[in-house]
Amino acid sequence: MKFTPEFIERVSEANNLVDIISQHTQLKPAGGGLMGRCPFPDHPEKTPSFSVSESKQVYNCFGCHKKGNIFTFLQQYNGMSFREAIEYLASRAQIPMPQMNPEEASKQDLVAQKKKLLGRVNKMASQYFHENFKRLSASHPVREYARKRGLSDQIIDTFQIGYASEEWDGLVAYLESKNVPMPLAEEARLVKARSGGKSGYFDIFRDRLIFPIFSMMGDAIAFGGRIIQQGEPKYLNSPETLIFHKGKVLYGLTQTAKYIRSEDQAIVVEGYMDLVSLYQAGIQNVVATMG
Ligand code: ZN
Fold first, then answer.
1. Which of 18, 119, 190, 287 has a beta carbon 3.0–4.6 Å from 250's, enabling a disulfide?
2. What would the pLDDT profile of 9-39 be if each residue is shown by its tens digit?
3. What is the 34 CA–ligand 1 centroid distance (Å)?
4. Cα separation, 163 vs 230, whole angstroms
5. Tell me, what's the pLDDT at 246?
6. In whole angstroms, what is the distance from residue 209 CA to residue 8 CA?
7. Closest to 175 in 3D by CA, of 136, 113, 126, 226
8. How many alpha carbons fall within 13 Å on the CB side of residue 18?
9. What percentage of residues in the chain have a pLDDT greater than 70?
10. Do residues 134 and 178 touch, judged by C-beta distance below 8 A?
11. Tens-digit pLDDT profile for residues 124-144
12. Cβ atoms within 10 Å of 151's Cβ, excluding its own
């Protein structure tokens, strides 16, 4: 739905960009404005180059050149859509959302409902993979791999690391037992319909160590799978879906955000394993880019 400029202005005026940004970095008065270390995890820095103008309600980073207003900040920092940013700020300021016409409202409802369903399927899949891992015998190659990389049970739990078995329909059968419609699981990019006139579905992730990718809200939104034995590709990642936008997500941030905040800097690595290994070694202010 389109918001009127008046509504957008009302929401924006009822919130202060400084309060929102101060949740993520410490701002101090400097040269008529406010300065702090850049809050964005992909731009760690020791010398503040992130400026905020309270009077203009805008921010500008002289280091990474991110800039904008309260809406773009929520979009860039939390991966919200414009609509989600408006909703969040309106509810924060206790401003009721405008009424939509029924057709628009039902379209919005459908998208919101689909997102919720996809989230639920991902959560089930994440639990399934994680339980699979925990059931592996100590001599299983995947267990051995995890041990060689020094992954403790605690780390496995913290990052909900899992295992997709060799079966072609392990996840299919599990989701079916939970009454998940297969077209929905296909939309979550977890299964695929068989081709060549055959009916049924098969698992996309097979015989892989699984790293669930979480949203800032802590929900599993996608998966990365690393092959342990023979096979290609070495890493298989979920493609983009309604709830997963690669460029907007940093792996590990759900677990590491609090350490990044307290250290006031982030180490950026590439890849799940590098992140988990550093975390395990006690370096916890770390995030991984999603390639
Ligand atoms: Zn920056």
1. 287
2. 999 999 999 999 998 899 999 988 999 999 9
3. 14
4. 15
5. 84
6. 45
7. 126
8. 12
9. 99
10. no
11. 999 999 999 999 999 999 999
12. 20
CA atoms within 13 A on the CB side of 277: 12
How far is ligand 1, taken at its centre, from the CA of residue 75, in Å?
A: 15
For the chain, the helix, strand and coil percentages under 3-state DSSP, each to the nearest 5: 40, 20, 40
Gyration radius of the chain over CA positions: 22
Beta bridge partners of 223: 212
Cα–Cα nearest to 7, from 69, 114, 89, 106: 89
Does residue 243 contact residue 213 with C-beta atoms inside 8 Å? no
Q: Distance (Å, rounded) from C-alpha 41 to C-alpha 266?
A: 6
Amino acid identity at 217: M
Q: Provide the 8-state DSSP code for 138.
A: T
Instruction: Specify the amino acid at residue 193.
Output: A
Distance 25 CA to ligand 1 centre (A): 11
- Residue 265 CA, ligand 1 centroid: distance in Å: 11
Angle (CA) 248-252-253 rounded to 5° is: 60
- pLDDT at residue 1 in the model: 61
**Residues lying with their CB under 5 A of ligand 1, a single-atom ion:** 38, 43, 61, 63-64
Q: How far is the CA of 282 from the centre of ligand 1 (A)?
A: 25
Ligand 1 midpoint to CA 78 (Å) = 15
Do residues 213 and 251 touch, judged by C-beta distance below 8 A? yes
Report angle CA 137, 138, 143 to the nearest 5 degrees: 95
Cα atoms in the Cβ-side hemisphere of radius 13 Å centred on 72: 8
